[in-house]
C-alpha cells in the first residue's frame, strides 16, 4: 500500500514537474549569441551580427520578415526567433555545424553568412570551368560574375526559416526527407506568392543542377539520405537530394492549395519520434496519403533511384 502511494506521488511529482522543466529550456538558444552585436531593425525578431562593418543584410532581413508574416498567417502563429549574420572566420563559435556561410536553423536561430559562403565559392569555381554555353545561362539571373549567394543565402534563408516552424514543436521527424520537403515547399510557396521578383533566382540554379544529371551523386536512395544526411556524404551529393526534393516541391505546390503545407507541418509535429514509434515505409505511405496528401506519399514510390 505504502509503495503504491509512493509510486502515485512520484508520478504526480514527475508529471507536475515536466512543464516546469520544459519551460526552463528557452526556445531561442542564446548560448551562441555571446559577443555578437545587436542591430536595430523595424522587425519583431532580433538581429545579431558578428561585425557591423559589412552592411549587406537589409534586403535579406526584409525578405525574412515578409516570409515570417506569410508563414505566421498560414500556420496561425507568431513565431519568435533570432537572425544571426556571421563571418566565415567566426562561424564555429556561432553556428551548429559547417560549412561557413551556408544558411542553417536550429533552436530558434536562423544563422546566415556575412561573407560569401564557402559553398557558393566552390560552386562558382566549378561552374566557370564548364563550357561557356552552360554558365552563360546563369548570367542573366545571377549577374556577370555569377553570384551564387543570391541563391545560397537569400533563397535558402527562407527554407531555413520554414524549418523553425516545425522545429518549435518537434525536432525528430519520421524522415529527414519529409522535413526537407516541407521547408522547400514552404520556401517555394512564399516566393511564388509573395516575392515573385525572386522567382528566377530560386528556380534557375536548381534547374541548372537538375539538368546536369547525377554524376556527382554516389548515393541516390531515400534510405541513404536518412542514414547519411548532411554529415556522411559529399556536399554535392547532399545537394543532389535537395534538388530532387525541390523538383517535387515545385510540382506539388504548383498543383495544390496551401493547406498541404499546414497538413504536412501537422504531420511532422504529430508523428515526431520523441512521442511516437518509428513508422515503417508502408505505414508511412498509408498515413501520408490519409493525413497529408497522395502527392507526398507518391514521392516514396516514384523516387528516381530506388
Ligand atoms: Zn533544410
What is the element layout, followed by pairings?
Elements: H1 2-24, E1 37-39, E2 46-49, H2 58-75, E3 82-86, H3 91-94, E4 104-106, E5 109-113, H4 118-128, H5 132-135, H6 139-142, H7 149-167, H8 176-194, H9 199-211, H10 222-228, H11 235-255, H12 259-270, H13 281-291, H14 294-302
Parallel strand pairs: 2-3, 3-5
Antiparallel strand pairs: 1-2, 4-5
Helix pairs in contact: 2-7, 2-8, 7-8, 8-11, 8-12, 9-11, 13-14
Explain the overall architecture.
This protein is of the alpha/beta class and 306 residues long. 57% of the residues lie in helices and 7% in strands. The protein has 14 helices and five strands. It has helices at 2-24, 58-75, 91-94, 118-128, 132-135, 139-142, 149-167, 176-194, 199-211, 222-228, 235-255, 259-270, 281-291, 294-302, and strands at residues 37-39, 46-49, 82-86, 104-106, 109-113. The protein has a five-stranded mixed beta sheet with strand order 1-2-3-5-4. Strand 2, helix 2 (58-75) and strand 3 form a beta-alpha-beta unit. Helix 2 (58-75) packs parallel to helix 7 and helix 7 crosses helix 8 (176-194). The longest helix is centred in the first third of the chain and has 23 residues, at 2-24. The chain is globular.
Amino acid at each position: 500500500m505504502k509503495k503504491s502511494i509512493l509510486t502515485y506521488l512520484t508520478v504526480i511529482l514527475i508529471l507536475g514537474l515536466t512543464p516546469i522543466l520544459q519551460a526552463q529550456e528557452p526556445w531561442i538558444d542564446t548560448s551562441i549569441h555571446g559577443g555578437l552585436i545587436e542591430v536595430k531593425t523595424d522587425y519583431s525578431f532580433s538581429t545579431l551580427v558578428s561585425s557591423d562593418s559589412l552592411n549587406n543584410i537589409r534586403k535579406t532581413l526584409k525578405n525574412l520578415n515578409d516570409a515570417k508574416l506569410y508563414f505566421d498567417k498560414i500556420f496561425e502563429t507568431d513565431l519568435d526567433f533570432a537572425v544571426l549574420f556571421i563571418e566565415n572566420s567566426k562561424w564555429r563559435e556561432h553556428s551548429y555545424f559547417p560549412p561557413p556561410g551556408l544558411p542553417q536553423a536550429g533552436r530558434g536561430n536562423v544563422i546566415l553568412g556575412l561573407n560569401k559562403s564557402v559553398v557558393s565559392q566552390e560552386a562558382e569555381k566549378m561552374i566557370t570551368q564548364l563550357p561557356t554555353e552552360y554558365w552563360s545561362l546563369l548570367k542573366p539571373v545571377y549577374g556577370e560574375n555569377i553570384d551564387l549567394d543570391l541563391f545560397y543565402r537569400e533563397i535558402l534563408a527562407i527554407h531555413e526559416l520554414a524549418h523553425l516552424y516545425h522545429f518549435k514543436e518537434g525536432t525528430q521527424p519520421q524522415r529527414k526527407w519529409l522535413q526537407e520537403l516541407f521547408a522547400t515547399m514552404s520556401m517555394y510557396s512564399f516566393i511564388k506568392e509573395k516575392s515573385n521578383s525572386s522567382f528566377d533566382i530560386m528556380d534557375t540554379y536548381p534547374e541548372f543542377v537538375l539538368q546536369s544529371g547525377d554524376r556527382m551523386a554516389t548515393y541516390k536512395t531515400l534510405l541513404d539520405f536518412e542514414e547519411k544526411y548532411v554529415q556522411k556524404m559529399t556536399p554535392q551529393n547532399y545537394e543532389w537530394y535537395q534538388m530532387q526534393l525541390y523538383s517535387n516541391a515545385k510540382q506539388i505546390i504548383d498543383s495544390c492549395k496551401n493547406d498541404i503545407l499546414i497538413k504536412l507541418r501537422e504531420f511532422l509535429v504529430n508523428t515526431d519520434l520523441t512521442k511516437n514509434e518509428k513508422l515503417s515505409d508502408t505505414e508511412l505511405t498509408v498515413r501520408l496519403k490519409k493525413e497529408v496528401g497522395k502527392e507526398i506519399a507518391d514521392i516514396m514510390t516514384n523516387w528516381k533511384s530506388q
